[in-house]
Amino acid sequence: MSRFWSPVVQTLTPYVPGEQPQMQRLVKLNTNESPYGPSSKALAAIEAQNTEDLRLYPDPEGTALKQAIAKLHGLDPKQVFLGNGSDEVLAHVFAGLLKQSEPVHFPDITYSFYPVYCKLFGIDYKTIPLGEKFEINTADYKVPNGGIIFPNPNAPTGRSIPRSDIEALLLRNKDSVVVIDEAYVDYGTQSCIPLLCGDDCPENLLVVHTLSKSRALAGLRVGFAVGHPDLIEGLERVKNSFNSYPLGRLAQAGAIAAIEDQAHLEETSAKVMQTRTKMVEQLGALGFETLPSTANFIFTRHPKHAGAKLYQALRDRGIIVRHFKSARIEEFLRITIGTDEQSNELITALREILN
Ligand SMILES: *Cc1c(COP(=O)(O)O)cnc(C)c1O
């Protein structure tokens, strides 16, 4: 604490990311990174940019990357916004689109960064409880609101809802922005991006993606949002009032190659989904109850063993998972889907702990 902190800084409770321990030989299943490397084409493209040209500023608009994203998804480049990780994109979304006279609505159990942005930007928010089975019911989101945001699949539950639920929500909610955070969409969830293609693109739908999870580039820091060109223009106004160059030359080059390598994404996502199915089965045999997941992580609890104890016992064995000390989810562990080998180590450790 310093007396020079501004009043808002004194009130902040910053987001705490999952730890990045420096210990060797850890089974790291706590921050939903990909266990497989990024596309080798992305690594080669970054290498090729590693030249004297780094003395020059990058393209502030990220034109070539916007074109690559637009091409992949059948959109116009004017529908694409880029940021330094989707966390930065989300920050601009809160500041530029969700700060309204009515409170923004999001689930009570969701990505814990959302309330942090609200505090930083002085945005009023209202949390909407998930259903009994930790599902999002879009009918619970009533007007008026200053905007709606949730991940699909939701984090940390891993549960998703079909695109048709979100289409219905858009029909009921025409006077504020609906933001779908699709960080984990590539592991079996229907994306809402197809709703944005063509002439009847809704004015108020924004879909946020990251290259940190399924494209295995968390270390490069690239995220994007897609939506109506007028929404994107609003975000550009915020970005250009904050940092004109959020993505460096290496990040732009690597991201373009990664976006163009859809085969790598499909191959690695399929492996993750196979491991997920097997892991859920094995956990079930040990008595764990796991929420249905379409993400690269699962949310699971054991009826006879406390979440905090299991977390610590795994940690003692060099296996790091995520545990949240929040109401309703204290008994759960969020476990990233790693390789088959990591998954086997986890199951072996849990078997030992439960005995
Ligand atoms: C991981 C994650 C993000 C942020 O990803 P970046 O690394 O900042 O691109 C955003 N939303 C959710 C729900 C996430 O889990």
How does CATH name the architecture of the largest domain? 3-Layer(aba) Sandwich
Rg, alpha carbons? 20 Å
Ligands (ions, cofactors included): pyridoxal-5'-phosphate
CATH class membership of the largest domain:
Alpha Beta
Mean pLDDT score: 96
For the terminal residues, how far apart are their CA atoms?
Answer: 46 Å
Shape, per Cα inertia axes: globular
Count of runs of 4 or more consecutive helical residues: 11
CATH homologous superfamily name of the largest domain?
Answer: Type I PLP-dependent aspartate aminotransferase-like (Major domain)
Q: SSE layout and pairings?
A:
Blueprint: H1 7-11, E1 27-28, H2 40-49, H3 63-73, E2 80-83, H4 86-98, E3 104-107, H5 113-121, E4 125-128, E5 148-151, H6 163-172, E6 178-181, E7 205-210, E8 223-227, H7 229-239, H8 249-260, H9 262-285, E9 289-290, E10 297-301, H10 307-316, E11 319-320, E12 332-336, H11 340-354
Parallel strand pairs: 1-11, 3-4, 5-6, 6-7
Antiparallel strand pairs: 2-8, 7-8, 9-10, 10-12
Bound molecules: pyridoxal-5'-phosphate.
Can you walk through the features of this model?
The protein has helices at residues 7-11, 40-49, 63-73, 86-98, 113-121, 163-172, 229-239, 249-260, 262-285, 307-316, 340-354, and strands spanning 27-28, 80-83, 104-107, 125-128, 148-151, 178-181, 205-210, 223-227, 289-290, 297-301, 319-320, 332-336. The protein has 11 helices and 12 strands. Helix content is 37%, strand content 13%. The protein is α/β, with parallel strands linked by helices. It has a 5-stranded mixed beta sheet with strand order 2-8-7-6-5, with helices on both faces. Strands 9-10-12 form a 3-stranded antiparallel beta sheet. The chain has a two-stranded parallel ribbon with strand order 1-11. It has 2 domains: 19-37 and 263-354, Alpha-Beta Complex (Aspartate Aminotransferase, domain 1), CATH 3.90.1150; 40-260, Type I PLP-dependent aspartate aminotransferase-like (Major domain) (Aspartate Aminotransferase, domain 2, 3-Layer(aba) Sandwich), CATH 3.40.640. The N and C termini lie far apart (46 Å). The model has no long low-confidence stretch (mean pLDDT 96). The radius of gyration is 20 Å and the shape is globular. Helix 9 runs parallel beside helix 11 (340-354). Residues 85-87, 111, 151, 155, 181, 183, 210, 212, 218, 223 line the site of pyridoxal-5'-phosphate (PLP). The site of pyridoxal-5'-phosphate (PLP) has 12 residues, from helix 4.
